[in-house]
Amino acid sequence: MTSAPDLPPVTGAWLAGDPPGRRRWVRSSLRLEAGQVLDFELAYETWGTLAPDGSNAVLVEHALTGDSHAAGEAGPGHPTAGWWDGLIGPGRALDTDDLFVVVPNVLGGCQGSTGPSSSAPDGKPWGSRFPAVTVRDQVLSEAVLADALGIERWAMVLGGSMGGMRALEWAVSLPARVESLLVLAAPAASSADQIAWASPQLNAIRADPGWRGGDYYDAPPGTGPHAGLGVARRIAHVTYRGETELVRRFGRRPQGDGRFAVESYLDHHAAKLVRRFDANSYLLLTESMNSHDVGRDRGGIGAALSRVTARTIVAGVDSDRLYPLYQSRDLAAGIPTAGEAAVISSPYGHDSFLIETPQVAALIKALLG
Q1: How far is CA 39 from CA 36, 120, 282, in A?
Q2: Averaged over 148-175, what is the pLDDT?
Q3: When you count CB atoms within 10 A of the terminal residue's CB, does the N or C end of the chain come out lower?
């Protein structure tokens, strides 16, 4: 991922030869829902010590542009600091003095796990040849990781957004392996509105000449699909934040360079993402979210949710315009072991599950207590 300092790399993916940081890997193979057998590596990080009987293990699932580095500082191999650092560590809600916390990089991702930027069996990047991956495929790959670590049953599985989809899928697909479940700002199935918001993001990347049909990894630095990925990030980031926050924080204030301050804010987040993420992974993972439906081939959502046996809390955000609170309420109502959906009250929109640490910590403690 090294390039001239003033040019973004063709991909922000972690690549073989980059510093491993805290990552470790498990290697196996999996028959995907699409029918292809995929040999894969799953990168992961852990905090704490696994109990002899494996009873203290917690699985944390990251969102779309997250990765395994949920706690700790930025450093070699980790371009950003831990995205849930306030929740993981000694004395925190996920207390690593007592718990063994496991955070994998999702299958199809770009920070160490097998994805489009990884080498295919022929030694060339997968690129456009990488197969479609579903949330169910991702969960089965994580079950391989659990087996490798000697974890038969998770004390808790939790995550928000795309991570919430995987957490829910764990409890539906493998209910005997999940003792408690926390689903944050995620639905039982992606809605037409959510798929619609994703569509211009996907099209922006594919319309970028630098995307080259998905086979851009041999391009020189600065010539990858940065414009398309940046536009996708700008669209997504608007849906991640609350209207009230943006109005209060930026108003109509001009930046002084021809942009409004809110435009500069979106430009900043776009520029950051192209240096730490891969456009093909963005496409692949977004499409896996679009296909998310726990009721598919299971007799519908109600029948699927009836499989859940874990103690469950479902929580939504009152200002979330991407995954509205009613979806969390509908999901909670369908899970026999969940009560009424909890509400995270915040002006920050969908991203509140990453920001409102005390409120999320209280939900974690309620389940672990």
Answers
A1: 10, 9, 21
A2: 98
A3: C
* Residues 185 and 328 both lie in one domain: yes
Cα→Cα distances 322→190, 191, 265, 308, 351, Å: 10, 10, 19, 25, 10
Q: Which DSSP state fits 132?
A: P
Query: How, if at all, do strands 342-344 and 311-317 pair?
Result: parallel
3-state DSSP call for residue 290? helix
Report, as an integer, the average pLDDT of 187-216: 98
One of 68, 237, 350, 352 is an active-site residue; which one?
350
Q: 73 Cβ partners below 8 Å, 6+ apart?
A: 81, 82
In this predicted structure, the answer to whether residue 2 has a pLDDT above a threshold of 50 is no
Domain that holds residue 361: 24-192+293-368
72 and 85 in contact (C-beta within 8 Å)?
A: yes
For the question of residue 28 being annotated catalytic, the response is no
Write down the pLDDT at residue 58: 98
The residue annotated as part of the active site, out of 117, 141, 161, 319, is 161
Q: Is 350 a catalytic residue?
A: yes
Residues 204 and 328 in one domain: no
Q: Which positions ≥6 away from 105 have C-beta within 8 Å?
A: 23, 42, 43, 44, 62, 67, 68, 111, 112, 113
pLDDT of residue 5: 57
Q: Please compute the mean of the pLDDT values over residues 265-279 and round it to a whole number.
A: 97
Same domain membership, residue 183 and residue 63: yes
Catalytic entry in 320, 330, 346, 351: 320
Phi, psi angle pair for 106, to nearest 5°: -60, 145
Q: Is 320 a catalytic residue?
A: yes
DSSP state of 220: P
Q: What is the DSSP string of 186-205?
A: --SB--HHHHHHHHHHHHHH
